[in-house]
Amino acid sequence: MGNLIEVVYFVAVALFILGLKRMSSPRHAREGIVWAGVGMVAATVATFFVPNLENFGLMIAAILIGSGIAFVSGKRVAMTDMPQMIALYNGMGGGAAAAIAAVELLKMSGNHADMSHSMITVQLAVAGAVIGTVSFSGSLIAFAKLQGWLRKAIRFPYQQIFNLVVFVGTIGTGVYLAFVGADISIIILFFVLALAFGVLITIPIGGADMPVVISLFNALTGLAVAFEGFVLNNAAMIIAGTVVGAAGTLLTQLMARAMNRPISNVLFGSFGTTGGAVEEEVTGSLKPIEASDAAVMMAFAEKVIIIPGYGLAVAQAQHKIWEMSKQLIENGVDVKFAIHPVAGRMPGHMNVLLAEAGVPYDRILDLDEINEDFATTDVALVIGANDVVNPVARTNPESPIYGMPILNADYAKNVIVIKRGKGAGFSGIENALFYNDNTRMLYGDGQEMASQLIQGIKEL
Q1: What are the angstrom distances between the C-alpha of 212 and each of 51, 242, 344, 345?
Q2: Which of 73, 147, 279, 348 is surrounded by the most beta carbons within 10 Å?
Q3: Nearest 5°: phi and psi at 400?
Q4: What phi and psi, each to the nearest 5 degrees, are found at residue 158?
């Protein structure tokens, strides 16, 4: 039976890896999710046949309750709320790993004879506990920020020094547990400090950096699961956790590079702060345009590039924008979509929205693939995006976003910006693009404006 269980675990891991590979492309992402899901079910069923396993009733109850909550919430959650759901579920993964470590440490508390023979196991349990607990509490704060429950970054004097003290305390108690003994009072103090540290490192982070935060905590969750896999001697957890940790680390690096933030700053600095936002000296004025005039401008263009952002998700305008795009395509206009790596509130957020609307994948291009096309573009339509098209990232060394790669919308012959109001972007920085001579502002709800553009194009 033991060999059969290991074979099932191996097949499950293979499905995890193949599923993750399929998820790398929007064309095959759905298949990848199904493959990984089949692998997870296989590994879960095989675990029930592990020798000397107990508490089957609790296991089944936990699976049914968790699956039921996930199924209902997954069906009901709006696409605009997908980032916070990802943050929440990622936190649950880290919390589960931490709970495993807590149970194992409690089993070992007061039993020094066992601990002397399981020193490596204790050390791995502690390592997984630290990482999983930090990921759990940090992800909950990220969820609160994305949900709008915690709207402002929280900062206080000597914050970094205080965080360092809490971190040292967490590591110190962890080292005591790993090398001295699993005392119950130290275990409680250890988890309290780890939970506090996860909260403390997340509360000063601004919402504009949430894609990096989610990626980072995703990597930490995977690593925590891998450590606890060693503790439980579960090959599926070890390999799956390692794969998730590696993928999350790579994604974190890509997101950090897209925001021009070194990994060292992401890990140890107050990333996400604007550092005292510099007032941008913008010249010119905001020039409004009517939907009918914007429709004429796009209908008679040869090339149009659409740049979606979080405002598109809030307005749930992706279907209307694609309907408008199809009309333009029927009129002979070359229409493409430009995606910035950190557009939205999580990696791939815009890709998911556009795929849901039925936009063909060959019309959705990343920053590196499309940036050179803006110079020959007649109209760049910006809907809901702000900081990712702000030219001060190229021109103002004092700007908090200076050096961040942006979509070169300002190079287009004409720019139309669909925006609900005149406020600044998520980072709080005024966008110089909006004041350019070739930019026109189409004020209003994204879905409503898209409907008016559709009507305007039909009437031509």
Answers
A1: 41, 19, 12, 9
A2: 348
A3: -60, -25
A4: 60, 35
Average pLDDT, the chain: 86
Q: Take residue 76 and report the two structure tokens written for it.
A: 């009901």
- Scanning the structure block, which residue is given the tokens 């905001």? 286
Amino acid at 260: N
pLDDT at 259 over 80: no
> Catalytic pick from 114, 387, 437, 445?
387
Q: In whole angstroms, what is the distance from residue 226 CA to residue 13 CA?
A: 13
Contacts of 352 (CB under 8 A, 6+ apart): 79, 82
How many helices and strands in the chain, by DSSP H and E? 18, 6
Give per-residue pLDDT as tens, 207-218.
Answer: 667 778 888 899
Measured torsion, CA atoms of residues 379, 383, 384, 387, in degrees rounded to the nearest 10? -10
Is it the case that residue 443 has pLDDT exceeding 70? Answer: yes
Point out which residues pair with 303 in neighbouring strands: 334
Domain definitions of the chain by residue range:
77-268, 291-458
Residue for token digits 């130290």?
186
Radius of gyration of the chain (CA): 25
Active site residue 387: yes
Residues 6+ apart with CB under 8 A from 164: none
d(CA 196, CA 214): 18
The alpha carbon of 124 is separated from its chain's Cα centroid by a whole number of angstroms, namely 27
288, β-bridge pairs:
441
DSSP 178-233: HHT---HHHHHHHHHHHHHHHHHHHTT--GGGHHHHHHHHHHHHHHHHHHHHHHHT
For residue 313, give the nearest of 18, 154, 78, 119 by alpha carbon: 78
DSSP letter for each residue of 375-408 = GG-SEEEEES--GGG-THHHH-TTSTTTT-----
Q: Give yes or no for a contact between 443 and 420, defined as CB atoms under 8 angstroms apart.
A: yes
Are 138 and 217 spatial neighbours (Cβ–Cβ below 8 Å)? yes
Sign of CA dihedral 356, 360, 362, 368: negative
Nearest one of 330, 356, 245, 182 to 16, comparing CA atoms = 245
Cβ-contact 414, 438 below 8 angstroms: yes
- pLDDT at residue 348 above 90? no
